[in-house]
Amino acid sequence: MNEIFLHNFKSITNNYIDKVITGNNSRKSVIIFFNLLFEEAFNLGKIDRLCKLSSTSGNTLFKTPLSAFTFRSGLELKIINDNNLTSKDVYLMIGIILGNQYFVRKLISLGYDTLVITSNSKIIDLQLDLKNFTTLNNRLIK
C-alpha cells in the first residue's frame, strides 16, 4: 500500500469521523455515509482499496450493557479488492479507524461492541473488542 493511499485514507476517514462525533447519527446513517465516502474516494482514485461497512454479528465475549442484540452488535469493514493486501496494510487501516477514542465511544454508544475486519477472498478475518480502544472505565462497561 502506498503512502498516498494511507494519507488519503486517513484524511478522508478522520474528516468523516469528526462529522460522526459532532452529529446526531444513527447506526444506519453512519454505515450509509461511510460507504458513500469510501466509494467516492475509490472512484476518484484517492484510495486504492474499496471498503464497505455493514452491521454483522458481534462477538458475545465483547458484549457490554450498551451492545445491540448480538446478531447486530458488530461493525464489519470488508475490503473488497484485497489483491496484494498485507497484514501491515490492514493494521494501518485499523489504526486509522480506531485511533480516535471519541469515534470508538460513539460506535459503542450506537450499540456496537465488535469491529470485524474481513476481505473479499477471506484471507483476513479479525474481530476487535471496541472497548479496548477507549479509556472508558472498565467498571462502566464489562
Describe the model.
This protein has 142 residues and is of the alpha+beta class. It contains 4 helices and 4 strands, in the order H-H-E-E-H-H-E-E. A 4-stranded mixed β-sheet has the order 1-2-3-4. Helix 1 runs antiparallel to helix 2. The radius of gyration is 14 Å and the shape is globular. The mean pLDDT is 80.
SSE arrangement:
Elements: H1 3-22, H2 27-43, E1 51-56, E2 74-79, H3 87-98, H4 101-109, E3 114-119, E4 125-129
Parallel strand pairs: 2-3
Antiparallel strand pairs: 1-2, 3-4
Helix pairs in contact: 1-2, 1-3
Describe the structure concisely for a colleague.
With 142 residues, this protein is of the alpha+beta class. The chain contains four helices and four strands, in the order H-H-E-E-H-H-E-E. Helix content is 41%, strand content 16%.
Structural class: alpha+beta
> Which consecutive residue ranges, at least 5 long each, have pLDDT under 50?
none
Spatial strand arrangement across the major sheet: 1-2-3-4
Amino-to-carboxy terminus distance: 36 Å
* Main sheet record: 4 strands, mixed
